[in-house]
Amino acid sequence: MFGAIARRYDLANHTLSCGMDFYWRKRAANTVASWGPGKIVDLATGTGDLALALQKQLPDAEVTGVDFLPEMLELAQGKGVRQTMLADAMKLPFPDDSFDCVTIAFGLRNMENWKGALAEMSRVLRRDGHLLVLEFSLPTISIVRTIYRFYLHRCLPLLGSFLTRKKSAYDYLGDSIEEFPSGCAMIDLIEASGFRHATLQPLSYGIVTIYTAQSL
Question: Cα–Cα distance between 26 and 28 in angstroms, integer?
Fold first, then answer.
């Protein structure tokens, strides 16, 4: 499904978020920069937007973008992601304790097993390494949640279909956001998967949330 929309993926993301996805990734990259990691892996990197933001904020860090779709990695490389690897985030081809920081933007929700994916992230992190998850969530303010759900389920699939010719991908997007744990439920999931000191930072009225944690 994602391979089929790869060429129009960036256009759709920027249009459907009204450009807010640039802001969200910048906030995520600023958070990572405050930790000063030297070696970062960006999972489900897609076309590389977060990896590029990390490279900009941390020019001396080694940033590796990982995805299991060659179509996405080809685009990421063309945009300037310096180091990429074709791999499944559920079975990473890295030794234990390989990275100072693991990031994933809008990808954990698509994993077949959220706890298993987080445990794999914990495995490749060094002791006291940092995790950052940037993911869609549901606003906590009732009126904002109602408006957002209308956009998510009624407007977004039609706009996504027009931009990518793949309506099913955007029907899936809304359903996956509804099913994915957010807020305190996500904090509990992270801490049950090999992390501590989990925090959350809602952005844009809670449409997305930045979650952070440290490995044990």
Answer: 5
Which tokens belong to 147?
């408006």
Which ranges of 96-183 does DSSP label H, i.e. alpha helix?
114-124, 142-150, 156-164, 167-179
Domain edges within the chain: 3-136+183-215
- List, edge to edge, every strand of the sheet that includes 39-43: 83-86, 62-67, 39-43, 99-105, 125-136, 208-215, 195-203
Residue 51 is encoded by which pair of tokens? 């990896």
Q: What is the pLDDT along the chain (216 residues), one digit of tens a residue?
A: 555 555 666 767 788 888 999 999 999 999 999 999 999 999 999 999 999 999 999 999 999 999 999 999 999 999 999 999 999 999 999 999 999 999 999 999 999 999 999 999 999 999 999 999 999 999 989 999 999 999 888 888 787 777 776 766 667 788 999 999 999 999 999 999 999 999 999 999 999 999 999 999
CATH homologous superfamily, domain 3-136+183-215: Vaccinia Virus protein VP39 (3.40.50.150)
